[in-house]
């Protein structure tokens, strides 16, 4: 039973990380497209090479 729970928790963790990575890059054309992109302060979202990224 304990091994099953460990496997389930590991799968949940890996799927969560995968979804986080997908959400971390959003395609954009300009900085206006990145307004809803979440960044921790003092960083702000900017469109760099066609993707929203957090920069200072």
SSE blueprint:
Layout: H1 2-24, E1 44-48, E2 51-55
Antiparallel strand pairs: 1-2
Describe the structure.
With 56 residues, the chain is an alpha+beta fold. The protein has one domain. It has one helix and two strands, in the order αββ. It has a two-stranded antiparallel ribbon. Strand 1 and strand 2 form a beta hairpin. It is elongated. 7% of the residues are buried.
For the biggest β-sheet, the strand order reads 1-2
User: What is Rg?
Assistant: 16 Å
Average pLDDT: 85
Q: What does the overall shape look like?
A: elongated
Described by strand count, sense and barrel closure, the largest sheet is: 2 strands, antiparallel
Notable features of this structure?
2 strands; alpha+beta; elongated; two-stranded antiparallel ribbon
């Amino acid at each position: 039973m304990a091994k099953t729970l460990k496997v389930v928790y590991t799968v949940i963790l890996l799927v969560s990380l995968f979804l986080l990575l997908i959400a971390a890059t959003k395609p954009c054309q300009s900085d206006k497209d990145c307004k809803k992109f979440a960044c921790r302060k003092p960083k702000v979202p900017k469109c760099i090479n066609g993707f929203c990224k957090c920069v200072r």
